[in-house]
Amino acid sequence: MISVENLSVEFGARPLFSGVSFVVNPKDRIALVGKNGAGKSTLLKILAGLQAPTSGVVATARGTTIGYLPQVMVLADERTVIEETETAFAHISEMQDEIARLNNQLAERTDYDSPEYMELVERFTHENDRFNMMGGMNYHAEMERTLTGLGFSQSDWQRPTKEFSGGWRMRIELAKLLLRRPDVLLLDEPTNHLDIESIRWLEGFLARSAGAVVLVSHDRAFINNVTNRTMEISCGKIANYKVKYDEFVRLRAERREQQLRAYENQQKEMADIRDFIERFRYKPTKAVQVQSRIKQLEKMVPIEVDEVDNASLHLKFPPCSRSGDYPVICEDVRKDYGSHCVFHDVTLTIRRGEKVAFVGKNGEGKSTLVKCIMGEIPYSGNLKLGHNVEIGYYAQNQAQLLDGDLTVFDTIDRVARGDIRLKIRDILGAFMFGGEASDKKVKVLSGGERSRLAMIKLLLEPVNFLILDEPTNHLDMRTKDVLKEAIHAFDGTVILVSHDREFLDGLVDKVYEFGGGLVREHLGGIYDFLRKKDIESLDELHLSTAANTADDGPEKVPTTGRLSYEQQKERAKLLRKAQKKVEECENRVTELEQQKKEIEARLSTPEGGNDSDLFSKYAEVQRLLSAAEEEWMTAEEECNALTAE
User: I want to staple 84 with a disulfide (CB 3.0 to 4.6 A). Which of 79, 92, 493, 510 is the partner?
Assistant: First the structure.
């Protein structure tokens, strides 16, 4: 379908890749991998015909259609969702005309055994099959199924596209692309703007797709479920593996070991030849052998070893102070935008040290609740942050907020404080911005490089509560693994808003599901949550529960082991009372600690050191502080006991 021969791309003096050759065959499901900046997006643009290579040939079979989804695109705002999606079928009439033209040619010709006639038959069959796959003129049902699968509700279809966020508008473009049923799909980070359910729907769609797929994605579970071939850009070359990504990782490690052994043997052989040349260079009797060795050395082609990221990319969050036992407590929190209720009656408690995930369809309020916690937007209800909570916040658009005119070094230099400024080069090197890369302007960085830079900014301040909103978008797999390791070792509290199943797996022990205006708590990891969703059906959990209650009738007894409604209500009341007591104790401890600091400051002066009344007051504050801390611990124990019930 697509043949690439001896492809080379150069930016400046340094080639991005060179001498690249491969073929994209029908039914291929190719994962294009490599570290950030290796040229993955550039190669997709070349395959799509949007960028010309420096040299080489890209040949596409006649009649082959190509669909390309870039990471970022300019979107139109003049139509509704359904009208914009229908533009995917603007070529239906053109296809009908082409099929009619080919049919007329077949009817007029009589050279049935000629190669030209067989080629005509093949083209007619291909176009007719594509037309039928798209449902002919009955495409509305397929269009509605696709929009629903990508997370749009029926009420969204008549809304103007300009009312939607950039992520949702990218979904419209993805829907249009999928509905066109191109022979080759080129997808650059298609999961960045999708929630978990939409990603799983897309996996199923691509599995049923008849065409070829070439995709760039850092979602390991997604590419493992979709692809059957992996191509890695490394050392300016492309290595081709006809296996899924996980198997590719194993084979690549074996290949690199073989390369290292061959490289070491070659280096030893070259050293021996050079040693022979140096020893006998000036001996006339060895002149012939020396010249032979010199020619042998010149003809040797150095063995290349696949590059690996040797930079010591190890994230370690700096030491932080201890927060209270309950960094976040929500009671009946509600958020409305005009007449639209995003969520209501949100009651949850996040304890110190917990790592929880916020999941659900886009637009259900995950980022909105995060903004409420951050105090960025108003809300109704009670939302309280615990004692001594210091928040580090990574927003979805964090990378876009960077100043494009600054260099990488200047970006970090402006936020670094104290001794850390002496280590900026080391920190940048650890994040693969070593050497000349630190002098690059931010505006020339790839999406992944910008995300790493934004993450460095977050790491420069000690915090005890991390809120990370889609932190893995545009991060390569190695960086995601290191970030996951660092979060796992972080002893503070973490809220993760993410659709990346592999990233969340083993990291969170509680999942909050956003949907239908409600927030539901699910104990266990992300795959426990997904298994539960599959068992309970595709409907929203609260709708399933309501339907079961209606079908079973009023005589059904509540599930054994669960509290009745009245018991739950009483327990929630006691828990709120206990949490309020904990908060009051925290405030009292904070107040007394401040008084103690002020007295200590006065005692350090000559006047204060001679004030006996001040010493008495200091002793009294210490006594009250000890009592308040003991009362705080007792209140926390009572609250913990209620939570554990």
Answer: 79
CA distance 529 to 515: 14
Which structure tokens are listed for 381?
Answer: 């209800």
CB 192 within 8 A of CB 115: no
Which is higher by pLDDT, 57 or 641?
57
Report, as an integer, the average pLDDT of 573-579.
Answer: 77
Query: CA-CA distance, 242 to 203, in Å (whole number)?
Result: 19
Sign of the dihedral defined by the CA atoms of residues 248, 249, 251, 256, in that order: positive
Chain segment 59-102, per-residue pLDDT in tens: 988 888 898 888 766 666 678 888 888 887 776 767 777 888 88
Residues 72, 296: Cα–Cα separation, whole Å: 51
Report, as an integer, the average pLDDT of 332-345: 89
Spatial distance between the Cα atoms of 34 and 245, rounded to a whole number of angstroms: 12
Q: What is the pTM of this model?
A: 0.56
329 by DSSP, 3-state: which? Answer: strand
How far is the CA of 416 from the CAs of 163, 430, 457, in angstroms? 38, 16, 8
Amino acid at 550: A
DSSP state of 558: P
Name all contacts of 143-147 with Cβ < 8 Å and 24+ positions apart: 143/82, 143/85, 143/86, 143/88, 143/89, 143/175, 143/179, 146/85, 146/175, 146/178, 146/179, 146/205, 147/81, 147/82, 147/85, 147/175
Query: Which tokens sit at 415?
Result: 């936020």
Distance between CA atoms of residues 452 and 475, nearest Å: 7
Length of the chain: 645
- The Cα–Cα gap between 643 and 637 comes to 10
What tokens were used for 608?
Answer: 């204060």
What is the DSSP annotation of 384-404? EE-TT--EEEE-TTTGGGS-T
How many Å apart are CA 6 and CA 287, to the nearest integer?
40
3-state helix vs strand vs coil in the chain, percent to 5: 50, 20, 30
Strand partners, 214: 30, 186
In this predicted model, which residue has the larger pLDDT, 600 or 122? 122
Please tell me the predicted confidence (pLDDT) of residue 551. 41
Distance CA 360, CA 194 (A): 10
Rounded CA-CA distance 215/41 in Å is: 9
Tell me what pLDDT residue 609 has.
64
Token pair recorded at residue 576: 């709120």
Backbone phi, psi, residue 305, to 5°: -110, 130
3-state SS, residue 15: strand
**3-class DSSP string for 206-243:** HHHCCCEEEEECCCHHHHHHHCCEEEEEECCEEEEECC
What tokens appear for 280 in the block?
């006998």
- Amino acid 493: pLDDT: 93
